[in-house]
Structures are given as C-alpha cells and as structure tokens.
C-alpha cells in the first residue's frame, strides 16, 4: 500500500464527534450515528466492544468534500441503547439494514472492521439494494468460542469465563479500564496507537445500562458469526477483503473467505493487527478514496 495519507480539508477529531451526532430508532434500539460531508455515501461499521469514536483517526484522513461518511454505534455499543435481544450476527445486520433505509442511502460503500466487516458482508449476501460494494477489514467469522480468545492469555481467560453458566454475566460486568486496555492491546501490532482518551470513552460507554449484558450476549452468539460465512457465496457485488498480517484469523480462514466470495480482491496490510482502522488509518483511507 502507498504511504501517502489522504487528508480531509476539514479534519474531524474524535473529540468533536458527539456534537454532530444524530439518533435513529431501528430494530428496537436507539442508534447514535454521525453523518459528515457530501458525495458518495460511505458507512463505517466498528469492531466488537468499540464504537464510532474508534474511527476518529480514519475520519481525520477522509476527504469529506468528496464522500459522505456515516459512522454508527452498533446496538449495545457506544452511546446507542442496548435492548433486551439476542445479539446475533443477524440482529446486528438487521439493525444496520434498517439504518440504511432510515438514512435513505443509495449506492453505499460499507466499510467494516471485525464484526462490522461480517455485518457488511451479510448485507451484501442478502442483496441489499442500498449497498454497492464492501471493504471488509479483518472479518470476525472464525474461532470456536469467538476469535477474540486468540488475542492474548488475558482475553482467552476472560472470554472463556464469559461462556460459563451463571458466572458469564458477572464476568461481563466486571470489566475494568486495565482489562479493557489489555484486551484491546492484544489486537494491535503497534500498541502505541491506543490512546487513553479512547479507552476511557469505551470504558464509560461500557458501563451504560444494558451494555454489559449486550456484550455477554454477543459473545454467547459466536456461532452466528461463523454461520454468516455460509452466505458469502451469494455475494454479487465488488468486495475487497483486507487482512492484517497480524490479525487473529489464520491463513486457511482467510483463504476460505477469499474462495467463498465470488470475485473478491484480497489485500494484506503489513505491520498491522486486528484493529486496522485504528492502526493503519492512512491505508484504509486510501482504499476508501480509490473505491468509493
């Protein structure tokens, strides 16, 4: 990938996202989202246990005079509400599908990280008419019990315990800043990109009503994320699969996805971990600029 950053004429620091946020009622949830710029729509879908603020460094590099960016807090994440539902891959996909309708988007490029990538691929497989292409960054659709257990010994112990009967919800409610920081650092090649301000914001939002329960449910629904791969052969629009060389996924899992998605283009990001938009925002911005 080229190293020249694509810099917006009007940078949008993460700290300035909240004043521009909007809300939409979809799938039983009140979703926070931001809508910035004008031009071809690009929808940003974040990872598990993060929120749209995760995309702050990427937003600073996108040319919002040429594209319209819609970044959303998924249900049970960030400042979105956490309804009492099963947080399966289908539920998240349904919610984003309805948000695309609510925003009256046409010919949208979906750019997703981790579970966001799997949601984007699911909507493409459904043949959603509002979606024109997908950029899928490190899709989260692998790993018995959830791929995040590969992050570190800390994450393996934590996310193993989340599945235990009775104790799982207690573990999900027992998060501390130090635990959250440790799990996130396990998904980074360059751990220096993880700023305290982002960790603090993620921790605050994780303490909102219902969010710990939603995170517990998401992890309990790990089979639904793997099952999403069965839909990939139905995709009939352009897909760029982007894998970091230090992602949690294994080479055979990456190759299986590339084979399953008709005509998919595969790109590797070097010196990068699971949280690609946080760690390599320049490269992701260049991909968006080239394709949106």
Question: pLDDT under 50 segments (min length 5)?
Answer: 1-15
General form: globular
Identify the strand order in the major beta sheet.
1-2-4-3-5-6-7-8
Order of helices and strands: EEEHEHEHEHHHHHHEHEHH
SS elements, strand count: 8
The percent range for strand residues is 15-25%
Give the averaged pLDDT, no decimals. 92
Fraction of helical residues: 25-40%
Radius of gyration: 17 Å
Termini separation comes to 17 Å
Please summarize the sheet with the most strands: 8 strands, mixed
Which structural class fits the helix and strand makeup?
Answer: alpha/beta
Oligomer: single chain
In DSSP terms, counting alpha (H) and pi (I) runs of 4 or more, how many helices?
Answer: 12
Description:
It is built from twelve helices and eight strands. The protein has 292 residues and is an alpha/beta fold. An eight-stranded mixed sheet has the order 1-2-4-3-5-6-7-8, with helices on both faces. The relative contact order is 0.17.
List descriptors.
17% strand, eight-stranded mixed β-sheet, disordered N terminus, 36% helix, alpha/beta, 12 helices, 292 residues, 8 strands
Layout: helices, strands, pairs:
Blueprint: E1 21-26, E2 29-37, E3 40-45, H1 56-59, E4 67-72, H2 89-102, E5 108-113, H3 115-126, E6 131-137, H4 153-161, H5 168-173, H6 177-185, H7 196-206, H8 211-220, H9 222-227, E7 239-244, H10 251-260, E8 265-269, H11 276-279, H12 281-291
Parallel strand pairs: 3-4, 3-5, 5-6, 6-7, 7-8
Antiparallel strand pairs: 1-2, 2-4
Helix pairs in contact: 2-3
């Amino acid at each position: 990938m080229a190293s020249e950053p694509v810099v917006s004429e009007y940078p949008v620091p993460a700290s300035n996202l909240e004043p521009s946020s909007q809300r939409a009622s979809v799938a039983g949830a009140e979703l926070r989202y931001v809508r910035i710029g004008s031009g071809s729509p690009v929808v940003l879908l974040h990872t598990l246990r993060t929120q749209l603020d995760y995309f702050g460094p990427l937003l600073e590099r996108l040319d919002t005079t040429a594209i319209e960016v819609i970044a959303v807090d998924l249900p049970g994440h960030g400042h979105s509400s956490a309804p009492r539902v099963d947080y399966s891959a289908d539920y998240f996909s349904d919610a984003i599908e309805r948000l695309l309708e609510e925003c009256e988007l046409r010919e949208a490029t979906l750019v997703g990280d981790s579970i966001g990538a799997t949601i984007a691929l699911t909507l493409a497989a459904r043949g959603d008419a509002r979606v024109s292409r997908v950029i899928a960054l490190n899709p989260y659709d692998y790993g018995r019990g959830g791929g995040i257990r590969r992050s570190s010994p800390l994450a393996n112990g934590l996310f193993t315990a989340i599945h235990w009967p009775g104790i799982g919800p207690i573990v999900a409610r027992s998060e501390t800043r130090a635990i959250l920081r440790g799990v996130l650092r396990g998904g980074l090649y360059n751990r220096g990109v993880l700023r305290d301000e982002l960790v603090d914001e993620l921790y605050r939002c994780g303490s909102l009503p219902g969010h710990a329960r939603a995170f517990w449910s998401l992890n309990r629904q790990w089979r639904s994320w793997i099952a999403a791969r069965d839909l990939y052969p139905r995709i009939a629009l352009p897909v760029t699969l982007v894998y970091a060389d230090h992602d949690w996924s294994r080479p055979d899992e990456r190759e299986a996805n590339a084979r399953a998605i008709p005509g998919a283009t595969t790109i590797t990001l070097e010196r990068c971990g699971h949280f690609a938009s946080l760690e390599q925002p320049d490269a992701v911005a260049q991909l968006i600029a080239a394709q949106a």
